[in-house]
Amino acid sequence: MNSQKSVILKIDKFSTYDGRGIRTVVFLKGCPLRCQWCHSPESWSFQVEKYPDGEKIGTLMSTNEVLDEVLKDKDFYDASNGGLTISGGEVLASPDFAIELLKKAKAQQIHTAIETSGYAKANVLERFLPYVDMWLWDVKHLDAKKHLFYTGKSVEPILKNLKCVNDFILSECNLQRTIILRCPMIKNVNDDILQLKAIGELAETLQAVSEIDVEPYIPFGLDKAKRLNLPIKEFEIPVRDYGTKIVAELSKFTSKLVKLT
Fold first, then answer.
1. Residue pLDDT, tens place only, 15-68
2. Edge-to-edge, what's the strand order for the sheet holding 111-116?
3. CA atoms within 13 A on the CB side of 12
4. Where are the beta strands (DSSP E) in the chain?
5. Given CB 3.0 to 4.6 Å as the disulfide criterion, which of 124, 140, 192, 244 pairs with 120?
């Protein structure tokens, strides 16, 4: 049977970070955002690439090939309430491939999650709604001008799409579906009290949000960006207790669970 193909950056197995339980995480290549702190700038292009030393970046795979890899660990998903997570890059930027893979995973009774910036046209996002159990939704900045400056894209469609997902989950009355807000925290960029208050208030308006994950900045992308001559900036590395302080402050503005990841 024919199946959609996409360039896969990598497939990580036995992940306990990107959703509940033990998971296989499929990273797609291609992203419309250009976050200045991006930890995977090698995922920006939709094409197979090479570093200057010849190291290959990405492999063209079909949904059937990816599903075969995912199914190898189904016993672990079943035992741990885990499943498949599709990440990126940006999942919503490769809808035909991602939706086909999600459908095939659901047909095998596998829990599905996607990690996304939420940036997409509304009609693209709506296609995903029936096939995603858990949305890992990045909240990069809630100030419109700063979001545009730091990511290259508007926050407006992202927030509209987030509300759309929330409303769909509520309409379905499906307790298996949820949203987790994931907040990369960059010192002196998006970690002031006004921003934390805005994140908390946003979470309070969304009944489907189950928790907020605080993710302190780590400069994973610098070396890769340098090798590819891509414009990633270096930001201040936070001190050891930075994340716990952010969790404590953010918790003042929301009733949702706030966790350090």
1. 999 999 999 999 999 999 999 999 999 999 999 999 999 999 999 999 999 999
2. 59-62, 5-15, 23-28, 83-87, 111-116, 134-138, 178-185, 209-216, 257-260
3. 15
4. 5-15, 23-28, 49-50, 56-57, 59-62, 83-87, 111-116, 134-138, 178-185, 209-216, 257-260
5. 124
To the nearest 10 degrees (0 to 180), the angle between helices 193-204 and 242-251 is 50
The H-or-E segment that residue 70 falls in is: helix 63-71
Give 27's DSSP letter. Answer: E
Put simply, whether the predicted model's pTM sits higher than 0.90 gets the answer yes
Contact present, 21 and 201 (Cβ < 8 Å): no
Give Cβ neighbours of residue 243 (< 8 Å, ≥ 6 apart): 185, 214, 216, 260
Measured over the CA atoms of residue 185, residue 190, residue 193 and residue 194, the dihedral's sign is: negative
**Identity (one letter) of the amino acid at 201?**
E
Hey, what are 178's tokens?
């949820």
Report the C-alpha gap between 54 and 223 in whole angstroms. Answer: 16
